[in-house]
Design a protein that fits this description.
Length: 246
């Protein structure tokens, strides 16, 4: 069953069409890699799913509810409830610099969900262990490497128990030698059947970990399919040209 349906999504900045009738579905346990050239609309599309960008037309259905239907948004309370089912991991980590790693993880469950301190503390310890950073609980972000910051950001997103995780180019701000440690965490989540949408430039990762690849160019999905067939035998000339250059 689809846990998210996106249909005919449109977004413009003035006369510039950024998204053109974008349509797709996400099933439970899907790991979908979204690839394509820079400036093709991938990040804008992803951000629109969690209301960080507002669209001009189309629908986004989360479970049985509509975040936006035919361009008309739900109430702010309904939007808040629906977007709380999704976790977002950003390219530049977006950690709070004045909070420790542990405090970064525990802030949102405390404020947004009002959970008890014992439960929050237990989960933050478990998630820091999961991403290999138990020894950094008391550290501030400035003392962490880029790879460590991104692993903290993933753990922070998981603290909210999301039904779906969205990644916006999670490794593009990292030095190449730090990329692997972040991709390994995402791969582990895939093996645990976490539903994920990953905007990425890492073709090897997309091929190995995703169960579906969607190729976006100029604001629309040109082609999508199972990774092995997409990478070995793309159907469109545009996808072929893109893959030859990466």
């Amino acid at each position: 069953m689809a846990i998210m349906r996106v249909s005919n999504l449109k977004k413009s900045y003035g006369n510039l069409e950024v998204l053109k009738n974008v349509t797709f579905e996400i099933e439970k346990n899907d790991v979908v890699a979204i690839i394509g050239p820079s400036g093709s609309g991938k990040s804008t599309m992803l951000r629109s799913l969690v209301y960080l960008e507002q669209i001009n037309g189309g629908s986004i259905q989360v479970g049985t509810e509509y975040l936006v239907q035919d361009g008309t948004y739900a109430t702010s309370q309904e939007i808040k409830r629906m977007t709380s089912k999704m976790g977002m991991v950003f390219q530049h980590f977006n950690l709070f610099p004045h909070l420790t790693v542990k405090e970064n993880l525990e802030l949102a469950p405390k404020i947004v969900k009002g959970e008890g301190e014992a439960e929050i503390r237990k989960r933050s310890e478990e998630l820091l262990a999961k991403v290999g950073l138990s020894d950094k609980a008391g550290a501030y972000p400035a003392k962490l490497s880029g790879g460590q910051k991104q692993r903290v950001a993933i753990a922070r997103a998981l603290m909210m128990k999301p039904e779906i995780l969205l990644f916006d180019e999670p490794t593009s701000a990292l030095d190449p030698e730090l990329t692997g440690e972040v991709l390994q965490v995402i791969k582990q989540l895939a093996e645990e059947h976490m539903t994920m949408i990953v905007v990425t430039h890492e073709m090897g990762f997309a091929r190995e970990v995703a169960n579906r690849v969607m190729f976006m160019d100029n604001g629309e999905f040109i082609e999508s399919g199972e990774p092995e067939s997409f990478f070995t035998n793309p159907k469109t000339e545009r996808a072929k040209a893109f893959l030859q250059r990466v």
